[in-house]
Amino acid sequence: MSHTPSRLNYMQQSPDLFKKLVDLSMAIAASGIEPELSSLVDIRASQLNGCAFCLDMHVKEAKLHGERELRLHHVAIWRESPCSPPRNAPRWLSPRR
């Protein structure tokens, strides 16, 4: 049986950094970026960061906000996806090469 390590409590470990992350999220929400696109960006960032916890959280949030299942599955393949017109596929969604 595998042991899953306990998650780091970011708020407790680094409250200043966590506050900046919350401030960033608030700024993005106020920026005028379409909420649907913002959700997909959050999902893609979590994929690139390899954070299963955040990926799970952002997918659940997107589904609660009505995102279609197919688009959620296509986030990782946005370059080839018919669900991602060019305006929804900014270059910063892809990892640096």
From TrEMBL:
What organism is this sequence from? Dechloromonas hankyongensis
Pfam families, A to Z: CMD
| Family annotation (InterPro entries) | AhpD-like, AhpD_core, CMD-like
Xref: PANTHER family: 4-CARBOXYMUCONOLACTONE DECARBOXYLASE FAMILY PROTEIN (AFU_ORTHOLOGUE AFUA_6G11590), CYTOPLASMIC PROTEIN
Q: Identify the residues that the record assigns to the Carboxymuconolactone decarboxylase-like domain, covering every copy.
A: 15-84
Q: What is the protein's given name?
A: Carboxymuconolactone decarboxylase family protein
Q: What is the lineage of its organism?
A: Bacteria, Pseudomonadati, Pseudomonadota, Betaproteobacteria, Rhodocyclales
Mind telling me which Gene3D superfamilies this protein's record contains?
AhpD-like
- Annotated signal sequence is none
